[in-house]
Write a structure and sequence with these properties.
The protein has 176 residues and is of the alpha+beta class. It has a single domain, classed as Beta Polymerase, domain 2, CATH 3.30.460.10. 48% of the residues lie in helices and 21% in strands. The protein contains seven helices and five strands. It has a five-stranded mixed β-sheet with strand order 1-2-5-4-3. Strand 4 and strand 5 form a beta hairpin. Helix 1 packs across helix 6 and helix 6 packs across helix 7.
Length: 176
């Protein structure tokens, strides 16, 4: 895919993401349960795939996550929601917290929103801040090209995450 088409695709994907967040008022719902931070490709302006990453910092992550889940269900905001407990059932490369994986369809495109409920999101926020400081237009295009290749080779984002792509392009970067 050429650079112009990659940029158009990224811009359209971000526009759809913004419309999805606005139409559902998801962020307003989540703000009731903690401090909300959108992380990942959306704020970094390197969106390719239809997914949004959100972290909710909460003192009581279990209660916050289950109350948020209940409110989202009652408001009938989304087609499908999955719930994960990575406190009782920890997993490598996953934070110790609770996750809502929300599925939606926008203009025929299947979207996934991951909402993590964490006691402390400083690791995720610092990593995002560090990434933002390292993004140039040249490596932004490299990120989009790599995401395009991942998508067209039918490699899942679980087999090759966006963060692994960033690390491959930028070299290993560490936060404090």
């Amino acid at each position: 895919m050429n650079i112009k088409k990659l940029n158009e695709h990224s811009k359209n994907t971000k526009s759809q993401a913004k419309a999805l967040l606005q139409s559902t008022k998801l962020l307003d719902v989540l703000k009731k349960f903690g401090d909300v931070h959108i992380i990942g490709s959306y704020p970094l302006n390197i969106m390719y795939g239809p997914d949004i990453d959100i972290v909710v910092e909460s003192k009581n992550t279990r209660k916050g996550s289950t109350d948020a889940l209940q409110e989202i269900i009652e408001k009938r905001l989304f087609r499908k929601i999955e719930y994960g407990d990575f406190v009782k059932f920890p997993m490598d490369k996953r934070p110790k917290g609770y996750i809502l994986v929300i599925k939606a369809v926008v203009e025929g495109v299947k979207w996934e929103i991951e909402v993590w409920f964490l006691k402390n999101a400083s690791k995720q926020l610092n990593y995002n801040k560090l990434l933002k400081s390292k993004i140039t237009e040249k490596n932004r295009i490299k990120f989009l090209e790599a995401k395009y290749l991942r998508d067209t080779s039918n490699t899942s984002k679980h087999a090759l995450s966006s963060y692994e792509i960033y690390e491959q392009i930028l070299g290993t970067i560490k936060t404090q």
